[in-house]
Amino acid sequence: MKKYLLIASLALALMGCDNGTQVPKPEPGKQTSLTETSVDITQDKYTLLKTPLPTDELGASTPYVVEFFWFGCPHCYSLEPLVKAFRQENQDIQFITIPAAPNQRWEIEARIYYAMEALGVKESHYDRVFKIYADKRNEKRYPTLDEVSDLFSDASITREALEQQMNSQEVSILIERSRRLFDQAELTGVPALIINGKYQLDFAKLDGEQFAKDFMQTIRALGEK
Q: Whole-prediction pTM value?
């Protein structure tokens, strides 16, 4: 677990990536240490959504977690190892990933995600896409669609096939759902984790000294609320 603590604490002083179009740059922030006197370990570590997410529409059953993310977000990329660890250790909790699409810039990556899902390469190539966005961030630019599509060459998926799926009606419907749910949750940035459709995790309130442990335990406890 220690290897996740360093990764998470660097990125998750978290204000996250806001709903903008510029290439984001991670910035250090303040971390809040919590005392361990409270019986309820979730206290003050979440925001209650005014309007819960539609559990039935999401095809979810409690306990479940909805993660909003963006491939271009450095904080989402830094959080990913910890998310994977949580999913591995808590397989009884359903995990639903939604690519945020509140603006035209983020919509591109959301369409890439849903196209990957439709083409059957989401699981096998998800990390590769995240990695190329992280790599190109050092060049202060986003990867081109050609560069992204090249990642799928070993799966015999061409740029044309990727682009066709990105612009399909099915993907457009999912984009509209993503935008609607993002707005309904009144989100302003990513990463955002919402447990059981109503508890939004407040990263800034997690224990900075034991971030990974607090992350795991708090989500688990919120799932049992």
A: 0.86
